């Protein structure tokens, strides 16, 4: 393997790790503020999630393979699998890089409220 391809692999791995860390935060933010879980449809419909992920289902599949999340469906398709619950395996509070977990959860409650009003 050349030095160039090794650095490319490192870049891809870092990007995936970054997306997986963000996914955990998004599940806390969008989902039930008392439990780290969210229906796939709510996560998919969140504006911030739509802007961040190139392929949410692929990111979720990678997270499932790494033991970060669980869900019962073998695939996730918008509409057909909206009610499938995405559960975090590690239910302990996040290290949010200085952000307060309660603030993160509250932003999820605000987002749900705004979605319900529209």
UniProtKB/TrEMBL annotation:
Chain ranges of the Costars domain: 14-89
Membrane-spanning parts: none
SMART domains recorded: Costars
Domain of life: Eukaryota
Pfam families recorded: Costars
PANTHER family with a match to the protein in the record: COSTARS FAMILY PROTEIN ABRACL (PTHR46334:SF1)
Family according to the record: Belongs to the costars family.
UniProt name for this protein: Costars domain-containing protein
Native species: Cyclostephanos tholiformis
Upper taxonomic lineage: Eukaryota, Sar, Stramenopiles, Ochrophyta, Bacillariophyta
């Amino acid at each position: 393997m050349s030095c160039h391809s090794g650095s490319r692999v490192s870049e891809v791995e870092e990007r995936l790790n970054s997306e997986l860390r963000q996914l955990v935060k998004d599940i806390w933010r969008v989902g039930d503020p008392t439990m780290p879980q969210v229906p796939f449809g709510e996560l998919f419909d969140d504006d911030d999630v739509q802007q961040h992920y190139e392929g949410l289902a692929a990111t979720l599949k990678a997270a499932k393979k790494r033991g970060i999340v669980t869900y019962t469906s073998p695939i996730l398709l918008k509409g057909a699998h909206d009610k499938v619950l995405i559960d975090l395996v590690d239910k302990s509070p996040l290290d949010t890089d200085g952000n307060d977990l309660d603030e993160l959860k509250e932003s999820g409650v605000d987002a749900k409220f705004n979605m319900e009003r529209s």
